[in-house]
Amino acid sequence: MNYQYDLFVIGAGSGGVRASRVAASKGFKVGVAEFQALGGTCVNIGCVPKKLFVYGSEYSHVAEQAKGYGWEFAKPSFDWATLRDNKSKEIERLNGIYKNLLENPGVTIHQGYGELVDAHTVKVGHELISAERILIAVGAKPFVPEFPGNDLVLVSDDMFYLEELPKSILVVGGGYIAVEFAGICQGLGVETTLMYRGDKLLRGFDEDVRDFASNEYARAGVNVELNSDVEKIESVDGQKQVTLKDGRVLMFDEVLYATGRVPNTGALNLQQVGIETTKNGAIVVNDRYQSSVESVYAIGDVTDRVQLTPVAIKEAMALIGYWFDGVEPNFDYDNIPTAVFSQPPIGTVGLSEQEADQRGLDIDVYQTDFRAMKHTLSGAQERTFMKLIVDRATDRVLGAHMVGDYAGEIIQGLGIALKAGATKAHFDSTVGVHPTSAEEFVTFSAGSLKKR
Ligand SMILES: Cc1cc2nc3c(=O)[nH]c(=O)nc-3n(C[C@H](O)[C@H](O)[C@H](O)COP(=O)(O)OP(=O)(O)OC[C@H]3O[C@@H](n4cnc5c(N)ncnc54)[C@H](O)[C@@H]3O)c2cc1C
Ligand SMILES: NC(=O)c1ccc[n+]([C@@H]2O[C@H](COP(=O)([O-])OP(=O)(O)OC[C@H]3O[C@@H](n4cnc5c(N)ncnc54)[C@H](O)[C@@H]3O)[C@@H](O)[C@H]2O)c1
């Protein structure tokens, strides 16, 4: 059978771009469909612009904190349009780079919405395209629960293009996006309330990390409201009137819902082609990222495993290894380091204390919290938290967790250590970098053992 392409990819995001360009550079004839900007969520409305906003919002503390170091600045002011538009220019630059990344190795870009027709055919606009293999890498989109007035809320996509910065905002949710945007808004001078229906933010993270981070967000000025949920939202005098399930009525300029993301599979025609999905629309794949239809593969957020850019990229590379070198994909989903770019940020890799307990492991837990040296003169009251989970039987470090400045940067190196099977003895025999916060990870002594 002669196909137009060896590989046709639907979605030019983190996973789709990597799979397309590497497959093309290795000799496949590759086409990719994308109906929005090249680069996907991460580049356009995710990791990259979000991190630029985090940097932008962190400057708000500089003038105040620099005083202790002898600096006096004129009264700082902030212009939202400058940050927003400079960010957009940078994203457009990246879009151009992604175009080159695809076109240089010979990938053909089909601008438009792709949908499946059969196991080897995709329709983009009016064009029917045939391919030996089809890779679905369409990512996910924000999920907003059903309730009266849910059409009045913003989702994270909207935050990157706001005409004006609101004076007050309610951020609903307790995951990555909620805590990151609460920090951004608070830093940019928006009166910020972070509301979560459960009794702790950041489900899935280590319990001490959850408690510590939550306290630090409150210390930074975010109004953290736990065990609270929205009943309805109405538009009143240009503001959002929010009625809570406990009967309270609150007013905000804007409400941001960050209550998870669902696979982007609604209009792909998956059922007609016989592709199995989960209840929330995620494509079910086997260890080779193959769907229930042999010629159709899926990677990244659309499979709803771990919604992180480096994971989508690793999955793409695992597929490339399989297609070109016959290596069975064996991507290791354990020990994925991750950072939450809240303020302060969180870095984490490996098992939490609770996960280690659930697995019945006999563990030692070392932990500390302290005021980072920088803040002895800055006057800021924020504190840093660090924690190590160690397996008593093998001395292996099973988990490392941090809340504090540079946590994302620091955890990357610890990710390598855990992957390499480092023991507490390895940590102890590593010379610290002095004076840093990071050196606390190699100087934990018996005095830091948590009483359990
Ligand atoms: C606000 C936010 C912040 C984030 N921050 C981080 C972070 O700091 N670090 C991190 O690791 N991850 C972060 N993520 C998650 C990360 O962006 C995703 O995990 C990653 O982008 C997933 O890659 P993907 O290839 O699966 O999909 P995506 O990058 O979402 O790409 C999918 C692409 O497919 C396109 N598409 C969809 N349907 C079709 C169709 N039918 N036809 C053609 N094209 C289609 C979309 O337009 C999109 O371009 C963040 C996400 C959000 C929303
Ligand atoms: N720094 C990063 O790496 C980064 C940043 C942003 C997003 N991401 C990825 O994107 C994913 C999606 O982010 P997210 O924050 O939207 O999702 P999330 O799954 O991290 O958090 C969703 C939150 O919404 C809550 N929720 C769900 N339904 C609700 C409801 N009906 N009412 C109230 N609350 C409800 C959940 O309990 C949870 O706390 C993340 O899981 C992460 O994998 C990563």
TrEMBL record:
<dbReference type="Pfam" id="PF07992">
    <property type="entry name" value="Pyr_redox_2"/>
</dbReference>
<keyword id="KW-0560">Oxidoreductase</keyword>
<dbReference type="InterPro" id="IPR046952">
    <property type="entry name" value="GSHR/TRXR-like"/>
</dbReference>
<keyword id="KW-0520">NAD</keyword>
<comment type="similarity">
    <text>Belongs to the class-I pyridine nucleotide-disulfide oxidoreductase family.</text>
</comment>
<dbReference type="InterPro" id="IPR001100">
    <property type="entry name" value="Pyr_nuc-diS_OxRdtase"/>
</dbReference>
<feature type="binding site">
    <location>
        <begin position="173"/>
        <end position="180"/>
    </location>
    <ligand>
        <name>NAD(+)</name>
    </ligand>
</feature>
<dbReference type="InterPro" id="IPR016156">
    <property type="entry name" value="FAD/NAD-linked_Rdtase_dimer_sf"/>
</dbReference>
<dbReference type="InterPro" id="IPR036188">
    <property type="entry name" value="FAD/NAD-bd_sf"/>
</dbReference>
<dbReference type="GO" id="GO:0050660">
    <property type="term" value="F:flavin adenine dinucleotide binding"/>
</dbReference>
<dbReference type="Pfam" id="PF02852">
    <property type="entry name" value="Pyr_redox_dim"/>
</dbReference>
<dbReference type="GO" id="GO:0005829">
    <property type="term" value="C:cytosol"/>
</dbReference>
<keyword id="KW-0274">FAD</keyword>
<dbReference type="GO" id="GO:0034599">
    <property type="term" value="P:cellular response to oxidative stress"/>
</dbReference>
<dbReference type="GO" id="GO:0045454">
    <property type="term" value="P:cell redox homeostasis"/>
</dbReference>
<feature type="disulfide bond" description="Redox-active">
    <location>
        <begin position="42"/>
        <end position="47"/>
    </location>
</feature>
<feature type="binding site">
    <location>
        <position position="114"/>
    </location>
    <ligand>
        <name>FAD</name>
    </ligand>
</feature>
<feature type="domain" description="Pyridine nucleotide-disulphide oxidoreductase dimerisation">
    <location>
        <begin position="336"/>
        <end position="443"/>
    </location>
</feature>
<feature type="binding site">
    <location>
        <position position="301"/>
    </location>
    <ligand>
        <name>FAD</name>
    </ligand>
</feature>
<dbReference type="InterPro" id="IPR023753">
    <property type="entry name" value="FAD/NAD-binding_dom"/>
</dbReference>
<feature type="active site" description="Proton acceptor">
    <location>
        <position position="434"/>
    </location>
</feature>
<keyword id="KW-1015">Disulfide bond</keyword>
<dbReference type="GO" id="GO:0006749">
    <property type="term" value="P:glutathione metabolic process"/>
</dbReference>
<feature type="domain" description="FAD/NAD(P)-binding">
    <location>
        <begin position="5"/>
        <end position="316"/>
    </location>
</feature>
<dbReference type="InterPro" id="IPR012999">
    <property type="entry name" value="Pyr_OxRdtase_I_AS"/>
</dbReference>
<keyword id="KW-0285">Flavoprotein</keyword>
<feature type="binding site">
    <location>
        <position position="51"/>
    </location>
    <ligand>
        <name>FAD</name>
    </ligand>
</feature>
<dbReference type="InterPro" id="IPR004099">
    <property type="entry name" value="Pyr_nucl-diS_OxRdtase_dimer"/>
</dbReference>
<feature type="binding site">
    <location>
        <position position="260"/>
    </location>
    <ligand>
        <name>NAD(+)</name>
    </ligand>
</feature>
<keyword id="KW-0676">Redox-active center</keyword>
<dbReference type="GO" id="GO:0004362">
    <property type="term" value="F:glutathione-disulfide reductase (NADPH) activity"/>
</dbReference>
<keyword id="KW-0547">Nucleotide-binding</keyword>
<protein>
    <submittedName>
        <fullName>Glutathione amide reductase</fullName>
        <ecNumber>1.8.1.16</ecNumber>
    </submittedName>
</protein>
